[in-house]
Amino acid sequence: MEQYFSILKQSPLFAGIEERDLSPMLGCLGAKERQYKKGSSIFSEGEPAVYIGLLCSGAAQIERIDYNGNRTIVSVVDSGELFAESFACAGVERLPISVTATEDCAVILLDCRRITQACCNACAFHQQMIYNLLKITAQKSIRLHQRAEIISHRTTRGKLMAYLTLQATQKSSTKFTIPFDRQELADYLEVDRSGLSAEISKLRKEGILTCRKSDFELL
Predict the structure, then answer these.
(1) Residues 79, 169: one domain?
(2) Which of 58, 165, 177, 206 could, after both became Cys, cross-link 103 (CB 3.0–4.6 A)?
(3) What is the DSSP string of 117-165?
(4) Are residues 58 and 118 part of one domain?
């Protein structure tokens, strides 16, 4: 796993942990390296919620499929980020979401119980990791609240503009690239794709925005 140490050092989970401690730490945590092809399932809904995933390369999406087979994209996962940690830490028996690779991915799986419970070796990094994990969980809770505010708008236009405005604010620019294509954006906003495309066309004609594929500019 040494080829991923540069990613691990940048991950918030390992903040404050020395590089020399990475190898013994991964061994203590029972870390497992896995490779996934684009489109394959990393975690499936209904699996035991035991492992925390750390994306070392590629990209993934956290998804929820309803009874009728409609997909909702809950969030995207980029290199260096964790996923499924909230469910594992909460002791949820089964995962209520799926995680799908949107690019070829390298993932390290960490047994959550080995992080949250002190080991017999009394490793010094455990306390730091628990603090880091708590901070990551709190930050993701804020992002989920932001998404809830976006989809609380009653119209497709309202949801779209709330999302685009948040993206512009976070990137401190009126020009930005979103991590979705049109269908994925519709799934994230929980709207119909054709209706979304129609609203984007109207906003362009009204001079409110310009866009090309995933590149947007608010005017």
Answers:
(1) no
(2) 58
(3) S--TT--THHHHHHHHHHHHHHHHHHHHHHHHHHHTSSSHHHHHHHHHH
(4) yes
Q: Which residues pair with 76 in a beta bridge?
A: 61
Q: Letter for the amino acid at 2? A: E
N- to C-terminal Cα separation, the chain: 46
Mean pLDDT of 117-135: 72
- Do residues 157 and 135 both lie within one domain? no
Q: Is the pLDDT of residue 121 over 60?
A: no
Span 156-211, pLDDT tens digits: 999 999 999 999 998 899 999 998 889 999 989 989 999 999 999 999 999 999 99
- Tell me the pLDDT of the chain averaged across its residues: 86
Number of domains in the chain: 2
Q: pLDDT tier at 119 (50, 70, 90 boundaries)?
A: low
Give the list of residues 6+ apart from residue 127 with CB closer than 8 angstroms, or none. none
Burial of 139 (0-12, 13-18, 19+ CB in 10 A): exposed
Question: Both 13 and 101 in a single domain?
Answer: yes
Helix (H) or strand (E) holding 170: helix 156-170
pLDDT for 106 = 93
* Domain that residue 121 falls in: 2-140
Q: How far apart (Å, rounded) are the C-alpha atoms in residues 156 and 192?
A: 8
